[in-house]
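Lecture 7, part B: from sequences to assemblies.

Below are the input chains for today's worked example.
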Amino acid sequence: MSDSKTIFFISDGTGITAANLGHSLLTQFSDLKLNKQFRPFIDSVEKARALVEEINSLSTQSGEKPVLFTTVVNDTIRQELAQSQAIFLDFFHGFIEQLEKHWQVHSSARIGRAHGLEDNPSYSARIDALNYTLSTDDGLGAQLYTEADVILIGVSRSGKTPTCLYLAMHFGVYAANYPYTADDGSEFGLTPFLKNNRSKLFGMTIAPDHLQAIRTKRKANTDYASLRCCEQEIQNIEELFLREKIPFIDVTRRSVEEISTTIVTQLGLARRDA
Amino acid sequence: MSDSKTIFFISDGTGITAANLGHSLLTQFSDLKLNKQFRPFIDSVEKARALVEEINSLSTQSGEKPVLFTTVVNDTIRQELAQSQAIFLDFFHGFIEQLEKHWQVHSSARIGRAHGLEDNPSYSARIDALNYTLSTDDGLGAQLYTEADVILIGVSRSGKTPTCLYLAMHFGVYAANYPYTADDGSEFGLTPFLKNNRSKLFGMTIAPDHLQAIRTKRKANTDYASLRCCEQEIQNIEELFLREKIPFIDVTRRSVEEISTTIVTQLGLARRDA
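Predicted structure of the full complex, as structure tokens:
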């Protein structure tokens, strides 16, 4: 009997939904050794049969039933997969049935719609937002800023760019960033433009030693990466946030997903992923 | 009775998993008018009670029970939410129980782990990949290319950059891109470096009229955005793909998610999201 648990993530589309929920569930079993197998685009009975053979063969060899995480919509393909010698966790079917019953409608039962293009009205909004963010990254005149839903303020390497990209790609939010650099050690202030767009501002701060570590990876042994410089910049920017009443988040132990969700929630931004 | 259906996406963490599966389920009900409400970070009984009051009040007013999509881990919070006058679809609990039973272990029942930082070993890999992609975007010497897991080849505006960013952010794949421009109309070829890294190459093509529309948005009335130029470049690049046996994908009607998943699957790239 194998000591690792095998999970198959199976979908008739990209499998992103299966991977996403599956990953979330598995964080609750972090002590287990897992062997994850991804099988997207299982969109025909033939592919499903071949996959069932693979699963059964593995199940027999290892002496342990694999677990299937699936988001297959098509009934025939789903039933094919359900016949395997595996634990079948269907992330779709039961919920679809409950929604159909509650809303008294029939679902459309179309394959792989979730992360497709034509059936995703938010898609072009998200790509437009992404292109916007790329065009504004660390550059830009005030004209581009006026289109922003949010302008992130933080010192260099506090995570503005990944956050902007995530906000754009997932929420379709037009996110720009305004970098602060303080080579001369002077106090930070808001430009007149930023003052006039105060409601769009969101600050990011970070523990100085964490910032130092990130900057050191980039430019070791520079003043820029020194603890003294990091401490000074962080102190300046936090004073700015407090003085100008700019909401801000400490990103030190937070993921881009958490930071982005917090920003969207706190500023009440319209989510174009919905 | 209201004609739109209200859905609450509720989580004790970011709610990204609830939104993701919820969105996927709802693509099967695309004819309905939906009112989506996002409530992340419901991580205390007090917040859950306040939310239940809001839900009940809405339910009474509208005469229609809202639907709750939840990924709450904590039992007490979950039970609080389950008492609302709403249809309660729990994306977590039932599956966790099934996995506990099958694997004969107890889950850790910790809140909001799914998109957090400390419990997500793949997180820094994904951020590193994102920084890599940002550093290589449309620039770069051969040295940076050697770190790439995949090098995307395509003409300007065929979607290389969004795809690279998605590959990095979601799969932790080191994705670089190699832009082809053909101002002189000459045939495309592979540089010696690309020839030596053939296994990393993946091509992107697109319908010329679609490319023309994208380029026109950027630079209207230029030769660059002319149909003639788009057709010529696409013909050149497809000939290159065929001549050099580079796998490629037509991105015309595909989302970044579909394109990225196809690339990862076809090249058999290691997914660092797992």
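Note for the exam: Chain A has two domains: 5-103, 123-267. Keep this in mind when comparing with the next example.
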